[in-house]
Amino acid sequence: MSYKVYIVEDEINFNKVLTLYFENEGWDVKSFFRGSDAINAIYDTPHMWIIDVTLPDMNGYELMHKIKKHSKDTPVLFMSGNSSTSERVLGLEIGGSDFVQKPFSPRELIIRANRIIETRYRRTSITDNVNTVKFRDYIIDETQRAVFKNNMPIELTSKEFDFLKLLAKNTGQAFSREQIINCIWGVNSYVNDRVVDDLIRRLRRKLPNLRIETIYGYGYRACG
């Protein structure tokens, strides 16, 4: 599985160079030139962000704050042309995983990024965490709100994760579509049955070893 990194760098040529280097290393890369464009992609929840501190429309620290509000555990690596120690310390104090000063070699950035990924996603066996549920071939980490197979993360949306957790804790129990809507979206939500069916389709595609049985005219049930 390739890790997804989002790069926010306003200098066009340098942005392209970094994107090319990371792609050549097997990363799934998406790049942005403005912070406002990156904000629209926050809910994609990539594995990692690399952000230039000085962007044309906002401060990189401000962008990280918005990212952390959605996904507090997603690593952020800062880049900056400012050589002051105070800026480097600030970036780390507010939650940055690393801080690299420009100019730097793209190879150095990739090494730093790999180390962050190693620490965040690979170092500890996921099953060592007490807040995990094993469900067939998958490990559900409730603390990180993440799903893993063979210690590798699988990207799920918030609703996909909530429904998977519901199934994992109630294996064999049948849920009507109305019950699923009430549990996942809330009792007073305006969600129809087709949204539930679409959620199931996405989960089956992302988790092919998961056995979700369709109960026609009623709902769904997870098989152990």
Automatic annotation (TrEMBL):
Keywords: DNA-binding, Phosphoprotein, Transcription, Transcription regulation. The modification 4-aspartylphosphate is found at residue 52. SUPFAM superfamilies: CheY-like (SSF52172). GO terms for cellular component: cytosol; protein-DNA complex. GO terms for biological process: regulation of DNA-templated transcription. Residues 130-224 bind DNA. This is Stage 0 sporulation protein A homolog. It comes from Anaeromicrobium sediminis.
